[in-house]
Design brief:
The radius of gyration is 21 Å and the shape is globular. The relative contact order is 0.12. It contains eleven helices and ten strands. The strands form four sheets. A four-stranded parallel beta sheet has the order 2-1-3-4, sandwiched between helices. Strands 5-6 form a two-stranded antiparallel ribbon. The protein has a two-stranded parallel ribbon with strand order 7-8. The protein has 294 residues and is α/β, with parallel strands linked by helices. It folds into two domains: 151 residues, Nitrogenase molybdenum iron protein domain (Rossmann fold), CATH 3.40.50; 122 residues, 3-Layer(aba) Sandwich (Rossmann fold), CATH 3.40.50.1980. The longest helix has 26 residues. Helix 6 packs antiparallel against helix 7. The protein binds zinc ion (ZN). The site of zinc ion (ZN) has 7 residues, from loops.
Length: 294
């Protein structure tokens, strides 16, 4: 009886993944989806729940999303409470959930008001720390010859991201040191700023669900006018109104600050554009920042 039972179990286990089955991955943000594709290659099928311009802090899963998450072999998400309204779903499906943020040692994380800043993808070095753990996770789902392939992908993604951090750093050097300030709608670029030596100021906090106070706007306008900062930036996933209000407040202080362009903060661009990939998004942001501030 026991032998039959165990052979049934192993048979079932073996049948759940053959080398032709793709691992079904549901990613929350487009950044998480990009990471899953880079590591999984042609062995995975990735769905991204949040498209271009979608704000993950606000995103509430639809009934269809919950179904897709339940049907997935693996859920890849940003974590660190980025997807604040999906916490319960992740807890319920914790057996097949992979939080990118949880792969990063706490000593690398930025803490604000007692909470970890979730915007880790803006530092390619920190983001790279999840590459090898995700490769291991894919390999554990499919226990066959493809393990090595996942490992190779994990290692090459890790190396690419490190080189990428170096490339961005070189671009940033073109900005005069006293002009290295990024003012944006919400506080998404602290990891970017820390890695590349740029001061970062968000009108709102790290979470877009918090209101921007009148006092914050006033002191920011004072700072920009006083330091004669050339440009401030709008974000693809946050309404422009607070940045426009800040621009007007600066004008009232006798300094003309430009809108330096649109940065991709919490979502990648359209899938059919260069900004639709992780690398393309960071290149776009860096180019926009350097052009506006140099
Ligand atoms: Zn954000």
């Amino acid at each position: 009886m026991l032998a039959v039972a165990s052979s049934l179990v192993s048979c079932h286990k073996g049948a759940s993944f053959t080398s032709t089955d793709k691992i079904k991955v549901v990613a929350t943000t487009s950044m998480a989806a990009d990471m899953a594709r880079a590591i999984g290659g042609d062995q995975v099928e990735v769905i991204s729940l949040m498209g271009p311009g979608v704000d993950p802090h606000y995103y509430k899963p639809t009934a269809g999303d919950v179904q897709r998450l339940s049907d997935a072999d693996l859920i890849v998400y940003g974590g660190l409470h980025l997807e604040g309204r999906m916490t319960q779903v992740f807890e319920r499906l914790s057996d097949k959930s992979f939080s990118i943020g949880d792969q990063v040692d706490e000593s690398f994380l930025i803490t604000k008001d007692g909470e970890h800043d979730p915007h880790i993808w803006h530092d390619p070095y920190i983001w790279s720390l999840a590459a090898n753990p995700l490769a291991k996770r894919f390999a554990s789902i499919r226990n066959d010859d493809d393990d090595a392939k996942f490992e190779d992908n994990g290692e090459s993604t890790f190396e690419q991201l490190l080189n990428f951090a170096f490339e961005i750093n070189q671009q940033i050097q073109k900005i005069p040191e006293n002009s290295r300030v990024i003012v944006t709608a919400h506080d998404a670029f602290s990891y970017y700023g820390r890695r590349f030596g740029i001061e970062v100021v968000g009108i709102q906090g790290t979470n877009t669900t918090a209101e921007a106070g009148a006092q914050t706007l006033k002191s920011l306008a004072d700072m920009i006018a006083k330091r004669k900062i050339k440009a401030i930036f709008v974000e693809s996933s946050v309404p422009r109104s607070t940045v426009i209000a800040l621009q007007e407040a600066v004008a009232a202080r006798g300094w003309k600050v430009e809108i330096g362009g649109e940065l991709f903060s919490d979502a990648l661009g359209d899938p059919n554009t260069p900004e639709g990939t992780y690398a393309g998004m960071l290149r776009h942001n860096t180019k926009t920042i350097v052009e506006a501030l140099k």
